[in-house]
Structure formats: structure tokens, C-alpha cells
Amino acid sequence: MNPTNVFAPLLRDARILALNNVLKSFAGAEAYLVGGAVRDAILKKPLPLEDMDVSVLGASAKAVAHAVQEAVPHTRLVVLDESWGIYRVVFLHEDKQSPPLFLDVVQVQGDDIKADLARRDLTVNALAVHTQSGELLDLYRSQADLNAGIIRVLSLDNLKDDPLRILRIFRFHATLNTVQTPSTIEIETLNWAKECLPYLHSVAKERMAVEWFKLLSAERAFPTIQIMADAGILEALFPPLKALKMVSPNTHHHLPLWEHSLELVNQAETIYPQLDAQTQEALTQPSSHGATEYGLVKMACLFHDIAKPHTWQVEANFRHRFLGHEKKGVDVLSPLLSEWKLSQAVKHRVSRLVEWHLYPCTFDEQSSEKSRLRFFRRMEADTPFLIVLALADTLSTRGHAFTPETLATAQADLLDLLHRYWQGKAQRQAPPLLDGQTIMQVLGIPPSPRVGELLAQLKDAHALGRIHTREEALDFIRQLQ
């Protein structure tokens, strides 16, 4: 592989051209593209890349970043970490419609670029490309590891220096995992991760949340989650999960509760190709903490039955019951979500999915249109995500009480519910055909609760497609008078 050819498109990026031009005014200064940009170029990710990181030596990163910002129109400077010398130049688009691009300018750590690379977390991230010559610096067979999908830390000391790197091991295992090149974690790296687990408690939860949700939002996170579960890392991150191991299989569940909860993540990812384009698009929308909505669904998959150990009863006929576990689950989950300092949007979404995960399974072909409408209105934007969770739960529940025919019917009912949600969304969100003032004038009635009742009935009829025009709405309320 000719490095210059591989990285030529990257080096023609406007951000790097601006940087190289500015460096001419700093005698002896050099810069290297490092980390994700180099990795993604080797993997032939589409350009332009949102983030580019450059390490500067022979000049102050702060001064270089300021010079780039002053030289390029439609840019602004953000100080990310003054103590570590990390500065972000934000490149804004003139149309103000396209998302901004970032150039993070960082001071080289250590005496030179080689010392800087030696301090990094994984070999796949210990690559550097000189911004002017295009020369690739690969000191740790990093490119070979990247092409083979091997996740390997540079050293145990680096892991101890920043224990967040424990989570980065698994995040990169998930995000670099492809059908063509399945990721593997080098055995010594996995052992070191387990050895360093006690250090993880010193890491700010906000930093951990970003790595965790990037992991969950990967296209195939389940293999990584399974490795973390087998290594005892998942329960170390989330201690309330440990209690799931107490609950045994039963007539409904062919798997113990721990394995059932893991299997939900697998099923949520497996069913993705069966979902309609609107649901797929909704799942891939970004949330916060580096998550997509899909990542939040997978989080809810892991925690949907978190309160079952607290509500477990075995009756005389050996029937297992978990009365109210879905509501209790929010109480068990809430302190954990707060401890991880998650945004209100994330806490709201995950909690709602856990609380209502049984709701979609109450519908079948005999359900009334009104009951479905109540469901859609109650769950609002959470609806498609809740149905995906319910689908994953259904497909992970294969106890002998469920025949293949029963499972197939349940799956079909849920997919039909999802179809109806999207089919009627525009109608449900349409503006009202009449207002209260018009109803009072037409019917000759004073302000009263009756006006509100008529408005509600009119709204339902409109949402259900029974009326479509103002004239039909007027006829409708006259009949109700």
C-alpha cells in the first residue's frame, strides 16, 4: 500500500490545506494527522470526515489553532482543554445548513511524535500521517492490526493511566466489527481490561457514557456485549444487572433472565433488515452522549426486566410471576441513570421504554382502532422504538408455552402495529378541522365541558380517518349534539 496515495484525499481537505499554509509562518513547526482520521482513511470511510485530529510540534498548538481560525472565513475557535493543549477549530458552511466540520489541534505529548504515539490507547489509534509529506508513521504494526480487526492496547501502563481506555477497547471492538473483518480482542488485552476494572471507578461517568453509547450504537454491538458479559465487565459497569442471574427459565422464557436480556440486544439487531425504511431512519437518528436512538433501544433491551428479581414469585403450580416489574423497573433504573449523569432526553427515553415494554404486546388483529389510537397518543415519538423493543422481547421468549405459530402471530401483530403507526402519523398530527369557538357558534352552546368533549371526539374521528374536511367535521358535531 502506498501511503501517499491512500491519504492524498485526506491531505487535500480544506482543513489540512489551511493548516499547512499557516504552518509556513511557524519556523520548524510540523503537524501530523493522528487517530481516527488516519484509521478511517485506511478503512476507506467516505469523505469528508467530521472530525480531524492533528498533533503539532515545534510550535504552540494554541497559536496554530488561532492562526487557522484567523486565516479561514466562517470558522470559530473552541478551547477543549487548556491544560492538555487541545483546541478545536469549527469550520462552518456558508449555507448554514450542512453540519460543521472540526479540526482539533493538539500539542504533541512527549518529546516528539513517536513519544506521543507511545502514550495512546490502542494500536489501531497509534498511527500518524505527516500533513505535508503524507508519510505514514506506524511503529506498532497498527495498520496490520487494523486490517485484521485486532483490538490491542499498547501497554498495561497506558490502560492504568486512563482507565476509560477499558471501555474504548470494547467500543472499538464493536464499531470496527464488520462481516468482512470480524473484530477480535487480543487475549492479553482482554486480561488487562479485567485486571484494571477497579480503576474504572475513578473515571467520570460522563466520559464513560460517551464510550458506552457509541458501543451500543454500533451496527452489531451484541458480540461485544456478550464478551463483556462473559468477562464480568458488564455487571461491573452496571451492578443492578447482577441480580438478573438469579432468575431461572420458565414456561415463557427458555433462557435464564441474564441470557434473555442479552439476547434482546441480539434480536434487536437481527430484526433490523425486516423493519420499514421509516423505522430504520428513526433508529439511526442521533441522540446525546454519542448515542443513536437505536443505541438507546439496546440500552432498554438490557434493562427492560431489571426489576424482575425484585418481583419474582413462584406459585404452587410452578408458574413464575413478576407482577408490576415493568413499573418497578423505572424505580430500580432511575438511580443508575442519574449516577451516569445522562441527559434528561436519554433518561426519559430509556425509562419510558422500560416502563411500557409490555404495552405493544397487548394488541392483535382484533384490537379496536380506538385502542391503537390511545396507544399511539400515549407513547408519541417513543412508539416505534417501543415496538422494536417488544419485537426483540418476543423473539427472545421461546419457552414451551409459546408454539412457533404463536411467536409468528405475535411478530406479525407487532409489525402490523408499527405499520399502522407510520400510516396514520400525518393524520394524527394534522391541525384540527374546527376550533371550540366555531363549535359553540354552530351549535349555539355556551362555553362548557361539553365543548371540550366534542373537540376530543372530533379529533379522534379525524385521526381515525372517519372525517377529512371542515364540512364533514361540521356534520359530525351536529350529529353529536
Question: How would you explain this protein's 3D organization?
Answer:
With 481 residues, the protein is α+β, with helices and mostly antiparallel strands. Helices cover 52% and strands 10% of the residues. It has a 7-stranded mixed β-sheet with strand order 3-4-5-2-1-6-7. The protein has a two-stranded parallel sheet with strand order 8-9. A two-stranded antiparallel ribbon has the order 10-11. Helix 8 packs parallel to helix 10. The radius of gyration is 27 Å and the shape is globular. The relative contact order is 0.06.
Short overview:
This protein is α+β, with helices and mostly antiparallel strands. It is 52% helix and 10% strand.
The largest beta-sheet arranges its strands as: 3-4-5-2-1-6-7
Helix content: 40-55%
Q: What's the overall average pLDDT, rounded? A: 92
Main sheet makeup: 7 strands, mixed
Cα-to-Cα separation, first versus last residue: 80 Å
- The gyration radius over C-alpha positions equals 27 Å
Tally of discrete structural domains = 3
**Low-pLDDT segments:** none
- Molecular shape: globular
Secondary structure tally: strands: 11
Helix/strand-derived class?
alpha+beta
Counting DSSP H or I runs of 4 or more residues, the number of helices is 24
Strand content: 5-15%
How is this fold's topology laid out?
Layout: H1 3-11, H2 14-23, E1 30-34, H3 36-42, E2 51-57, H4 61-71, E3 75-81, E4 86-91, E5 101-107, H5 113-118, E6 127-130, E7 136-138, H6 142-148, E8 150-151, H7 156-161, H8 164-175, E9 184-185, H9 187-195, H10 205-216, H11 222-230, H12 233-237, H13 257-270, H14 277-283, H15 293-303, H16 308-311, E10 313-314, E11 320-321, H17 325-339, H18 344-355, H19 369-379, H20 383-395, H21 404-429, H22 436-443, H23 449-463, H24 470-480
Parallel strand pairs: 2-5, 8-9
Antiparallel strand pairs: 1-2, 1-6, 3-4, 4-5, 6-7, 10-11
Helix pairs in contact: 2-4, 8-10, 8-11, 10-15, 11-13, 13-15, 13-20, 15-18, 15-20, 17-18, 20-21, 21-23
